Amino acid sequence: MHAVKQLFTRYKMLALLIAVALIWLFFSWQTEGGFVTPRNLSNLLRQMSITGILACGMVLVIIAGEIDLSVGSQLGLLGGVAAILDVTYHVPLPITLLAVAAGGLLIGLINGYLSAYRGIPSFIVGLGGMLAFRGVLLGLTGGVTVAPVSPELVYLGQGYLPPVVGSVLGVLLFAVAVVLTWRQRSKRKTLGLALAPLWRDVLRVVVIGVVLVAFIQTLNRYDGIPVPVLILLVLLGVFSYITSQTVFGRRIYAVGSNLEATRLSGINVQAIKLGIFGLMGVMCALAGLVNTARLAAGSPSAGTMGELDAIAACFIGGTSMRGGSGTVYGALLGALVIASLDNGMSMLDVDSYWQMIVKGSILVLAVWVDVSTRTSRR
């Protein structure tokens, strides 16, 4: 047991990747290879994208020591607004996108203001929003599905990149990985810091290249890279840059690690939290758009339990429930774990109650690992 704790403490991402590999091997064995077919993997990644988009925003909220239970209802409301603008009022797609994004930002800022400036615990703000936004959605839609949305909007959730474009994207991503690795080594050398062995960085770049080739080739064997997956890759890059390369990102970790010390150092803690909730609102808008596009309709039940999947993805991906620790790519790996379990158990016709039991148990296990590893380091 101690060895397992040490593994999760020092190599969380490696342990998570091993867990994903084991899940995939198990379901591949049980489905006689059906789980790892290009078609199913494409569907799996498209399913994961909505939880992944929410997790990109949620991980910042949790790192800052807060929580937002309203994101599933926000997703449903904003996706429903998109469907109404598209179906009922025939608003052009660019205006619909801007309007829904602005609505998400406004909702997020209101949540952040109530929590950061009015002193209402974010748990209560989110709980109230979960009920209120769902009620607004039911009122706007009359409790019925709004359909069918336009082909332009549907493309956001069901479209694919041409194989050639996907291949070019893979080459660009590999080039970015090489450049970033080289810049990191150069910067550490300039600052006189210890350098990792060259073979380790070369191995990491090679592994990234192999994963990219397998990823692109597999998806190109079906219809290409799904547009929601492309959106998720862009968000991964953007949020990883924010958290690791910007002052705002460093302050998010500082707020979650020690709120009072951060405040006394002169940082506007309230503004940081307001910005985090604003970003969360925009991610809810984007997830709502993709979900509506994927279903080709605005559903009054859309986003139900979405907040729990997003929070679970963050905790499974190594984000600490105490705040101050976590990564965007870890949260996305957590979302991949959840999507893999959902997809695999659905293929095996596992009863829904067992699916809920398994996912709940894994969430508790992830938090237990976090608590245990932090305790062992004291």
UniProtKB/TrEMBL annotation:
Record keywords, A-Z: Cell inner membrane, Cell membrane, Membrane, Sugar transport, Transmembrane, Transmembrane helix, Transport
GO cellular component: plasma membrane
UniProt entry tagged with the keyword Cytoplasm: no
CDD domains: TM_PBP1_transp_AraH_like
Name of one Pfam family that matches: BPD_transp_2
Compartment(s): Cell inner membrane
InterPro entries: ABC_transp_permease
Transmembrane region(s): 43-64, 71-89, 95-114, 121-140, 160-182, 202-219, 225-243, 271-290, 353-371
Keyword Transmembrane: yes
UniProt topology in membrane: Multi-pass membrane protein
Role played: Part of the binding-protein-dependent transport system for D-xylose. Probably responsible for the translocation of the substrate across the membrane.
Family the entry assigns: Belongs to the binding-protein-dependent transport system permease family. AraH/RbsC subfamily.
Protein name as catalogued: Xylose transport system permease protein XylH
Species, as recorded: Pseudomonas oryzihabitans
